[in-house]
């Protein structure tokens, strides 16, 4: 069975919530599949964004590409609406000057219809999120 990246607009994913918005760097950039584009926060922390899959997916690996993120929490929801989130992981990320942070999270496979990413703290005033990759398979319902 072919593994799919569900965090792509071409796969039907949507960023349905982002706590900050800059018209030059919109949240939709997270799911466009390109590392060169990004969403940027506009100040205080925590900041968060929610990705909706519009169907139940089984995720085996999550990858985030970001810059200046210090502490990240990831939560999942199986609800039709973005409610009842459950904690998946919280991690302090490493930072190297001038390098994109690429963090992979491997889990026992889990089901989700929504993922919430909460940036609890940062190494600077602003952070950028370039891509989220959620690898897995579609759930047959």
Short description:
This is Intraflagellar transport protein 25 homolog. With 141 residues, this protein is mostly beta strands.
- Approximately how much beta-strand content do the residues carry? over 45%
Task: Tell me the radius of gyration.
Answer: 14 Å
- For CATH, the homologous superfamily is named as Galactose-binding domain-like
Q: In whole angstroms, how far apart are the ends? A: 17 Å
* Secondary-structure-derived class: mainly beta
User: Which bin fits the share of residues in helices?
Assistant: under 10%
> What's the story with the biggest beta sheet?
8 strands, antiparallel
Query: Number of DSSP strands?
Result: 8
From the coordinates shown, what is the CATH architecture? Sandwich
CATH class: Mainly Beta
Identify low-pLDDT runs: none
As for the CATH topology, it is Jelly Rolls
Number of domains: 1
| Envelope shape | globular
How many individual helices?
0
| Helix and strand element order | EEEEEEEE
Mean pLDDT: 93
Could you describe the 3D structure shown?
It comes from Gekko japonicus (Schlegel's Japanese gecko). The chain has 141 residues and is mostly beta strands. The protein has a single domain (4-138), classed as Galactose-binding domain-like (Jelly Rolls). Helix content is 0%, strand content 56%. Strands 1, 2, 3, 4, 5, 6, 7 and 8 form an eight-stranded antiparallel β-sheet that branches. A hairpin with an 8-residue loop joins strand 5 (69-77) and strand 6.
């Amino acid at each position: 069975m072919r593994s799919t990246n569900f965090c792509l607009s071409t796969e039907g994913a949507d960023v349905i919530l982002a706590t900050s918005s800059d018209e030059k760097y919109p949240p939709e950039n997270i799911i466009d599949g390109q590392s060169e584009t990004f969403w940027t926060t506009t100040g205080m922390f925590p900041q968060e964004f929610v990705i909706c899959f519009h169907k139940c997916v089984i995720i085996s690996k999550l990858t985030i590409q970001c810059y200046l993120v210090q502490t990240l929490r990831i939560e999942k929801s199986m609800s039709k609406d973005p409610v009842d989130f459950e904690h998946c992981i919280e991690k302090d990320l490493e930072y190297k000057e001038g390098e994109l942070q690429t963090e992979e999270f491997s889990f026992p496979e889990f089901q989700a219809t929504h993922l919430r990413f909460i940036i609890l703290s940062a190494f600077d005033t602003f952070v950028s999120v370039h891509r989220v990759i959620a690898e897995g398979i579609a759930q047959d319902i």
